[in-house]
């Protein structure tokens, strides 16, 4: 007899997984040498989480997100962060029509209505806090209010990247906004020489629009993603032993000195000022379940937790001001030390 849980069969889960693997393979044809980034992005997609991408310019972040929108079949919209960008600019824009009369059209958030699937905010830290506040509601509730009515975006996922080179006229994201991102993923240039040669000399990668069009549209139905994500969370299980492991990791994140974790030149007693909330740890488990599903098993294993640990929890930690300027070096070292020190079941 076919195994079945709450109306979803194991065969359905397998069919959805096959679609997800095909999605990964298609994205890997367009963005070379970024298999781990693509896997993390797919985990976020099937967990219905928003993503903050970090990395230098020209690494293919926009190409990757446009390719995701193409593969999902939903609408794609992009905004460039600038110091003069205001919240209203996301909602509408004004212009003079052919008769010279003032007119209003929907902005980048509203122009696609409830079909909006991928919303990309480029250089988010160039935008003012007022814009961050509107984006926070959009991310948290997938809705906003405009023209005296509420608009809903049930299929929306927000992706953003942050300018890490230029610091003038930038506004660092507040803690609440960063916590709304399911993952922070760092993108780096491929190290493989043959891949670097292809990206530079193969003319296929010079025409981005044509390259993206090679991806079949609607590989995964964006309108089904919410249902698929829900079924994954219901049917991929976490054992009591893994629950205890996650709790131990949580304790180590908040109180690393109590787990005998030491970093050179760092006072571990005062290092962590806050963060790693219950919501953050729930996101870790949510990501691990999707990773387990993509790997083809129905129970979360320790390697599933470890594979998504840094990207889901590091940006939710807030360090003592004495160490805040060194967080890009300290946070990876802290997470690595925790995974090494806390016994793996």
Task: Quickly list its features.
two-stranded antiparallel sheet; 5-stranded parallel sheet; disordered N terminus; 345 residues; 14 helices; alpha/beta; globular; Rossmann fold; 2 domains; Helicase, Ruva Protein, domain 3; 46% helix
Low-pLDDT segments: 1-6
State the assembly state of the protein chains: single chain
Helix content: 40-55%
CATH topology grouping of the largest domain:
Rossmann fold
What's the Cα radius of gyration?
A: 21 Å
CATH top level class name of the largest domain = Alpha Beta
| Spatial shape | globular
Strand order of the largest sheet: 4-7-10-3-11
Average pLDDT across residues?
91
Largest pleated sheet: 5 strands, parallel
β-strand amount: 15-25%
Tally of strands: 13
Helix/strand/pairing category: alpha/beta
The number of domains is 2
Q: What is the architecture of the largest domain at the second tier of CATH?
A: 3-Layer(aba) Sandwich
Strand-and-helix sequence, N→C? EEHHEHEHEEEHEEEHEHHHHEHHEHH
